[in-house]
Amino acid sequence: MASEIPTDEDVEEMEQSGVVAVLQRAIGHWGHSGALISGAATVFVHELESLNQELKKKEDRNQSLENDLSSLKTTYDSKLSDLNSEVSRQKAQVKKAMEEAGAMKDKNDELQVKLSKSKEEIIAEFQKSAAYDQALADAGAPELQHVSGLNV
Q: What superkingdom does the record give (predicted)?
């Protein structure tokens, strides 16, 4: 029956038996289903576009945050390096100051010992030193010049 075009008699017989009405309802339902599917597809396409736009915004934001994080890490590493250098410099200064303080303490101890000596000990020590000999030599030269009449 489907391979031939129905005759007028066949159509009349189908109308009487209700087949035409069933086919008309089926075609109506088919059309209604197609419209629903088409509408749903349109809604889904719009929703997909919206989700894709939202995803793009989030990806852009994520990239921006990653760039900011990278920049902050670079700055942090640079500052950390600067601080480590400054700490090393400060440690060297503290070490040098401690060495100088130790030397000053030794010198102070030496001077304290000298202060505790009697005048006679200090004079006797000075007379044994090369500085005393030099002082005598320096003092004697002008005296010799004066006595001999030389003007220097």
A: Eukaryota
Break the chain into its structural domains and give their ranges: 8-113, 117-152
Q: In one letter, which amino acid is 118?
A: S
Inter-residue contact 11 to 20 (CB < 8 Å) = yes
Q: Can you give the pLDDT at residue 152?
A: 47
CB 44 within 8 A of CB 51: no
pTM here? 0.43
3-state secondary structure of 150: coil
Tokens of 137: 């030599």
Residue 2: both structure tokens together: 């489907």
Instruction: Using alpha carbons, select from 51, 78, 75 the residue that is nearest to residue 67.
Output: 75
Phi first, then psi, for residue 149 (nearest 5°) are 85, 15
The DSSP call for residue 18 is T
